[in-house]
Amino acid sequence: MQNRLTVRSTTPLVVAAAAFVAAGGYVHATEWLDVYRDVPASVPGAEVVTIGFPVHVAASVVAVAALAVTAWSRPRLLGAVVAATAAFQAGALAVLILTRTGTVLGWTEPTWNDAANTSRAVEIGALVCLAALGTLLGRTRHPADETVACRPRVVPPGT
Questions:
Q1: H, E, C per residue of the chain
Q2: What are phi and psi of 107, to 5 degrees?
Q3: Overall pTM surpassing 0.85 (yes/no)
Q4: CA 99: distance to chain centroid?
Q5: How big is the chain by its Cα radius of gyration, in Å?
Q6: How far apart are CA 18 and CA 5, in angstroms?
Q7: What is the pLDDT of residues 4-57, one digit of tens each?
Q8: Which of 63, 91, 97, 110 is most buried by a 10 A CB count?
């Protein structure tokens, strides 16, 4: 079981990472509601935004909940959740950049608008927090995880 010192030391990073992930979900939700939900299916790659944005919002909600639950009630699983959330954020950032510099499944947007810049900033912020959290977790030793070296019992001859 993770000790209180470790929980205390990870809490600020968990909260910051969760806030960045939630902000990214919020940006995607508002952009979908304001701009992308009405993109016609005939537009090349329309599913990237018409389906992808709501999926991103749902994944953000799951990631934030998973970070909170594991940090406070299942700390032994926090490393796996941090890794999964970092992969999600890295993928979202990659798709954002690729749609601005090329195409993803046919979808392309040649300009960086305010929402794209905000999304990029919060995804980078989340990745920085998650990387710091992963580093901190990697340096923390858990007594239950340590292997106890077993030495053979030496029995004196004749006993």
A1: CCCHHHHHHHHHHHHHHHHHHHHHHHHHHHHHHHCHHHCCCCCCCCHHHHCHHHHHHHHHHHHHHHHHHHHHCCHHHHHHHHHHHHHHHHHHHHHHHHHHHCCECCECCCCCCHHHHHHHHHHHHHHHHHHHHHHHHHHCCCHHHCCCCCCCCCCCCCC
A2: -85, 135
A3: no
A4: 21
A5: 22
A6: 20
A7: 546 677 889 999 999 999 999 999 999 999 999 999 999 999 999 999 999 999
A8: 63
For 104, phi and psi rounded to 5 degrees?
Answer: -125, 110
Number of other residues whose CB lies within 10 A of the CB of residue 145: 9
The confidence score (pLDDT) of residue 147 equals 45
Residue with tokens 């594991």, as numbered in its chain: 70
65 residue type, one letter: A
Question: Would you state the structure tokens that stand for residue 144, as one six-digit string?
Answer: 């239950």
Lowest mean pLDDT among 55-59, 96-100, 110-114, 146-150: 146-150
